[in-house]
Design a protein that fits this description.
CATH superfamily of the domain at 22-129 and 174-214: Electron Transport, Fmn-binding Protein, Chain A
Helix content: 10-25%
Number of helices: 5
Number of strands: 9
Strand content: 25-35%
CATH topology of the domain at 22-129 and 174-214: Pnp Oxidase, Chain A
Shape: globular
Oligomer: single chain
Radius of gyration: 20 Å
CATH class of the domain at 22-129 and 174-214: Mainly Beta
CATH architecture of the domain at 22-129 and 174-214: Roll
Length: about 220
């Protein structure tokens, strides 16, 4: 195979180092600052995050999902509760996410526990989704499970499309909703020259947060 050797791929990081004095006292305040800068940089889908959970078998599993909101209480994302990740999170609520903003030499890791959002918040968000995305939630009821082919998925989509008129509200499926990842640990990573990266970790201790620098 005539491909680039991965071991020879190197990205030099150039820029000012990250100092303790640069950080906000609270992790979600610091996340707010960095997320805003990631968005303003033109980074494609800065709200994309790699979510890791633990299967009932003990096997870890990761996938990319989209963060759809955040505040001091944590990060929110939505999915099919009966999907593989939904079942894993319900069985073991421990999870972590990584925002891979490598184009701006940054990444953020958030680890903690998840909790389901209430029906009111789920309904409110579902109503804001484009009609096609709402229909997609209905058509993918069997998310993560085998299907015969793409034709089957298209058939389901068009069947649900015919159920509601174009001006008729589409209700949220009962099996679809959101989770909040409540942080217990948040790490901010910034790439540095000669692989001397800057890493700061916020750790919750009782009701307070402690900040510590980590070796790269």
């Amino acid at each position: 195979m005539d491909h680039q050797n991965p071991a020879e791929l190197r990205k030099p990081y150039v820029g000012e180092p990250l100092r303790r004095r640069d950080l906000a006292d609270l992790p979600m305040a610091q996340f707010h600052l960095w997320f805003g800068e990631a968005h303003e940089s033109g980074l494609a889908e800065p709200n994309a995050m790699v979510l890791s959970s633990v299967e009932p078998s003990g096997m870890p599993r990761s996938r990319t999902v989209l963060m759809k909101g955040y505040d001091a209480s944590g990060l929110r994302f939505f999915t099919n509760y009966t999907s593989r990740k939904g079942q894993a999170l319900d069985a073991d609520p421990r999870a972590s996410v990584v925002f891979p903003w490598h184009a701006i030499r940054r990444q953020v890791l958030v680890a903690g526990r998840v909790e389901r959002l209430g029906d009111e918040e789920n309904d409110r968000y579902f109503a804001t989704r484009p009609r096609g995305s709402q229909l997609g939630a209905w058509a993918s009821e069997r998310q993560s499970r085998p299907v015969a082919d793409r034709t089957e998925l298209d058939r389901l989509f068009h069947e649900f499309d015919s159920v509601w008129g174009t001006d008729e509200p589409i209700p949220r499926p009962t099996y679809w909703g959101g989770y909040r990842l409540v942080p217990g640990e948040v790490e901010f990573w910034q790439g540095g020259e000669d692989r001397m990266h800057d890493r700061f970790r916020y750790v919750r201790v009782d009701e307070a947060w402690e900040i510590e620098r980590l070796a790269p």
